[in-house]
Design brief:
74 residues; mainly alpha; 5 helices; 59% helix
């Protein structure tokens, strides 16, 4: 979850743990993109971090901030 929330931040490329972070970030991105329909997932192939993918998808597809929809539910 840290890769999605920013809890695990990108280290400096010269840091000893950069390669591990990069590999793990790539795995999380692959999980996200492969869980989407092909046409949608292709859009996110060029993002650099899982956090970027997660935030963009959340902003585009989340109804959490849609007050009209909240009003209808109530």
């Amino acid at each position: 979850m840290g890769y999605l929330t920013g809890g695990i931040s990108k280290p400096d490329p010269e840091a000893a743990n950069y390669e591990a972070w990069d590999a793990e970030n790539f795995i999380v991105m692959a999980w996200l993109i492969n869980s989407m329909e092909l046409k949608i997932g292709r859009t996110y192939l060029f993002y650099k971090t899982a956090k970027e993918v997660w935030e963009t998808v959340q902003n585009l597809y989340s109804d959490m901030k849609n007050t009209t929809q909240c009003f209808k539910v109530r």
